[in-house]
Amino acid sequence: MTAIIIDGKARGLALRTTVAAGVAEFAAAHGRAPGLSVVLVGQDPASAVYVRMKGVATREAGMVSAEHILPAETSEPELLALIAALNADPTVDGILVQLPLPRHIDTDRVLAAVDPAKDVDGFHPINVGKLSAGLDALVPCTPAGCLLLILEALGDISGKEALVIGRSNIVGKPMAALLLAKSATVTIAHSRTRDLAAHVARAEIVVAAVGVAGLVKGEWIRPGACVIDVGTNRVTGADGKARLVGDIEFEPARARAGWITPVPGGVGPMTIAGLLANTLQAAKARVS
Ligand SMILES: Nc1nc2c(c(=O)[nH]1)N[C@@H](CN(C=O)c1ccc(C(=O)N[C@@H](CCC(=O)O)C(=O)O)cc1)CN2
Predict the structure, then answer these.
(1) How many CA atoms lie within 13 A of 285 on its CB side?
(2) Ligand 1 mean position to 271 CA, how many Å?
(3) pTM to 2 decimals?
(4) Is any ligand 1 atom within 6 A of the Cβ of residue 49?
(5) Tens digit of pLDDT for each residue in 102-120?
(6) Where are the domains of the chain?
């Protein structure tokens, strides 16, 4: 079997086009476009790229984008003061604090300071709690994008064996909650899991989000499985050139899977598209 390669770039673009149409309707009805404010603290090069990509995509969808780029030495009270100002600004519908934050800042405290109604990352404890209780919530963009890809590949996933590798708050835990909400039988594997290979071999859906290049061996994959790779690991190839690879050995996994996402061009573009969808959702909820 050779897997169908899931084109996250094309799927992300389609979602962005749908969001842009919703933004035009919103603007016609309310006399203003939804606004997204993105906050970046420090000069992490990958984060700077992602923030730029978010700004471009937000503007392309017809929304108002504000990027707040703060020096690495910004204190936690200074950052909290900016978030308080954005919370109070009626033209701001969505607030996103790019992660990771510098080590001197308490990430949990910062994420909890964002107004849950504007929390387009879905990281505020209220949105986390709502998701795990099966209530309507702003849902983290990457797992939401993964779920769209999985449902489009498989249709109904009720009762299917799903394995989420990684237990981060950004991807692993919300991904498990979303799969559970669709009635999949969900296992979360992590660094202490014994015999990862056996778990992978049982799974009809595998979502890998650990950040370890090639951790999941292709030969472990159950034939016909839907394989979603969230890993974005920068490695240097034999030619000395840097490239991006996932957590899953792509070619051997592709030979066994039914569907597989590439890296790059799989899950990544869905993250940005999901952010735009969340911003429109937050804007609509705020005016209703
Ligand atoms: N506040 C947040 N911080 C972070 C999040 C997040 O969802 N919210 N996720 C990641 C980074 N991220 C978005 O911020 C992100 C990662 C990757 C991509 C993407 O499109 N990747 C491309 C490749 C781009 C490249 O060449 O580097 C792909 O996979 O095709 C978008 C967004 C951590 N921080």
Answers:
(1) 17
(2) 6
(3) 0.97
(4) yes
(5) 999 999 999 999 999 999 9
(6) 30-115, 141-268
